[in-house]
Amino acid sequence: MATKTPVLTSKAPKPLPGIYSQAIIANGVVYCSGAVALDPETGKLIDGDVKAHTHQCIKNLTHVLEAAGTTIDKVVKVNVFLDNMDNFADMNEVYTQYWGDVKPCRTCVAVKTLPLNTDVEIECIAVL
């Protein structure tokens, strides 16, 4: 069985103890848990709309990826969860500013409820 190495950085929101890791490294791949727009210092959702929240989600993921030894440009798959597809265009306006010239594969779905009743959650997979 492949070795699983957890990733933990104080630059991103702390994971719930004993529930999940910020990311796992296995076989040269980094699997990031979903990120919501939490401020790493306060542990609370930042103020703002889905655009501000999308920036914060990606900022949090970027810190986790860097702690794992990779970068946002090496992301190969992204999953975006929205509370409402009416937020799709605003989320994409921010999303397209990231991930480098070659955008990763992506799935985007609307879900009934997200943690802390926020409007967006993003998870990703990257190579080292």
From TrEMBL:
Instruction: Choose one Gene Ontology CC annotation of this protein and give it.
Output: mitochondrion
Q: Which GO terms describe its molecular function?
A: deaminase activity
Q: Which InterPro entries match?
A: RidA, RutC-like_sf, YjgF/YER057c/UK114
| Source superkingdom | Eukaryota
The family assignment reads: Belongs to the RutC family.
Question: What protein name applies here?
Answer: L-PSP endoribonuclease family protein Brt1, putative
The organism is: Talaromyces stipitatus (strain ATCC 10500 / CBS 375.48 / QM 6759 / NRRL 1006)
Q: What is the lineage of its organism?
A: Eukaryota, Fungi, Dikarya, Ascomycota, Pezizomycotina
